[in-house]
Amino acid sequence: MSLQRFTQDALSEWMRGKGPRSDIVISSRVRLARNLSGLPFPMLATSSQSSDIVRRVEEALRSDNRPAALDKAELIRMDDLSDLEKRVLVEKHLISPHLAEESRHGAVVLSPNEAVSIMINEEDHIRIQCLFPGLQPQEAWKLADELDDWFERRLTYAFSETTGYLTSCPTNVGTGIRASVMVHLPALAMTQQINRLFPAITQVGLAVRGIYGEGSEALGNLYQVSNQVTLGQREEDIIEKLTGVVRQMIQHEHSARSRLREISLTKLEDRVHRSYGILSHARVLSSKEAMERLSDVRLGIDMGLISGVSANVMNELMVLTQPGFLQTRAKQRLDAEERDIRRAGMIREYLSMKREGQ
Amino acid sequence: MQCQECGKRPATLHYTKIINGEKMEFHLCEVCAKEKGEQMAGMEAGFSIHNLLSGLLNLDGQFAEGQPARSASSSEGLRCKTCGLTYSQFSKIGRFGCSDCYKAFAERLDPLFRRVHGHTTHRGKVPERTGGKLRIRREIERLKQELSARIQKEEFEEAARLRDRIRELQAKLDS
Fold it and tell me: I need a labelling partner for A260 at 20 to 30 A (CA). Which of A27, A42, A58, A323 fits?
């Protein structure tokens, strides 16, 4: 299969990078945790109770006037997928590793553009997730809220007047909402201001963590900012606070970029072009190096230092070069060394395709 | 098959261990397995939000040490009648077994919620279909706030309309 076809089939809406503030914000996600009343949470549910939950959601989906976002949505059972297929869904951020590996009767409802994924029998019975490109947490919340209302007309949730939506983990109780925004902050990282920014963010009840990295390490300068508090605050306030903080981070990143341009333009140009050169020609690339180089190239594109490559190169390649994707494209299992070779090949081919084509 | 540890929940973890050359079979439910520190294949060992949480929960135990033994033992005896989870199991795993656990452990949860969230009461969304009276009460609260704002601005016509609406809702609530 040509790379063009493969990426068309493989990419979700959010990776195409068309959204507000998409020069810095990759994606916005809202997740609502819900449980059905009268049944134990997935951790303690028996096999028949768990499969009953899938059946109830399936039944709800069969009813008339589905919301537009769920039009043609499909329910997929984890048991029907191969390990590799599950892995690809995890790499696309559509399901969690927990659902893929540990759930009993785990399932996911996926909309065709993959903006909506509803996990069933993860840590909670139902987890509604909406994923939008760029800075759109408000839009993601609106859609999640609408889907939640639609399900609630057909299913009875575990809800308490004082404690709100009851969840398996006490860190989700109340609103059950986790809103998160993925941001690319290379200039703040290069100028070492990022570590000063984080304590301020944690103080207002938000959390920041690196993604694709081990522990706190952020590969490719990608960070996820999300709310920690779910009880005692209104959803709208949580979303507003998150959006406000992210807007400030964008501003800081912009001023760090301007400063880099002022004080060390040549060095910066050298760095991004070196990375571009390596991505265009290397024969072996670890995922760590690939992410770092992609981050440099993306910065170069955003700052107008590299031309002729589209800005979504990082969004797309960071997903396409994950192990699951590489193996799916190769149609075989690959060990780490073979993956590094395939990764370099995929990136070379992708970049030359982007140079010629669009 | 029932869990051989608690004898209540279905066993979901089956494994064989060789201890001092002797083969032993185990059939445990997830709760007891976690409590015994057995890890499922592919499960991440080590540091997680749940470890962190159970750290928070166990603080209670440390504080309770200086108190009369009665209070400590009474909290250990807390048990959810619906799913069988005990408070001490909950404090180790950091997860509830079912929605009734919230009622069963209610007396111990406010300090936990305050530590995690800084609050103890839900102020967000209420389910449309089943939220019934709570939804109405929230609406009345909102209207009352608007009412006093209108009165301050001396918009009496609008205020009167709001007052009638509040009365209507109040009647609905009392019926």
Answer: A27
Alpha-carbon span A122 to A100, nearest angstrom: 9
List of residues 6+ apart from A228 with CB closer than 8 A: A171, A205, A206, A207
Q: pLDDT digits over B95-106, tens only? A: 999 999 999 999
User: What is the DSSP code (8-state) at residue A221?
Assistant: G
| DSSP reduced 3-state for A177 | strand
The per-residue pLDDT for A120 is 98
Reported ipTM: 0.88
Annotated binding site of A for ATP: 27-31, 93, 127, 178-182, 209-214
Q: How many angstroms separate the CA atoms of A91 and A118, rounded?
A: 16
Residue A91: Cβ-neighbour burial (10 angstroms; 0-12, 13-18, 19+) = buried
Candidates B43, B125, B126, B135: best to mutate against A (most CBs of A within 10 A) is: B125
| The amino acid at B95 | R
What crossing angle do the helices spanning A336-356 and A235-281 adopt, rounded to 10°?
90
Please tell me which of the candidates B42, B128, B134 has its beta carbon nearest to residue A101: B42
CA distance A165 to chain B (A): 8
* β-bridge pairing A126-133 and A25-34: antiparallel
Q: Is residue A73 within 8 Å of A107, Cβ to Cβ?
A: no
Domain interval for residue A170: 3-179
| DSSP single-letter state for residue B44 | P
Of A149, A179, A209, the one marking the end of a domain is A179
Side chain identity, residue A8: Q
pLDDT score recorded for residue B52: 60
Minimal CA–CA distance to A155: which of A118, A110, A105?
A118
Q: Is A156 on the interface with B (CB under 8 A)?
A: yes
d(CA A24, CA A46) in angstroms, rounded, equals 45
Q: What is the pLDDT of residues A145-171, one digit of tens each?
A: 999 999 999 999 999 989 999 999 999
- Clarify whether residues A286 and A149 are in a common domain: no
Flag whether pLDDT at A20 surpasses 70.
yes
In a domain, A243, yes or no: no
Chain B contacts in chain A segment 324-353 (CB below 8 A):
none
Q: From residue A106, how far is each of A81, A102, A123, B153 by CA, in Å? A: 11, 8, 10, 55
CB atoms within 10 A of CB A161: 13
Phi first, then psi, for residue A41 (nearest 5°) are -65, 160
B22 forms beta bridges with: B19
Please give the model's pTM, rounded to 2 decimal places. Answer: 0.81
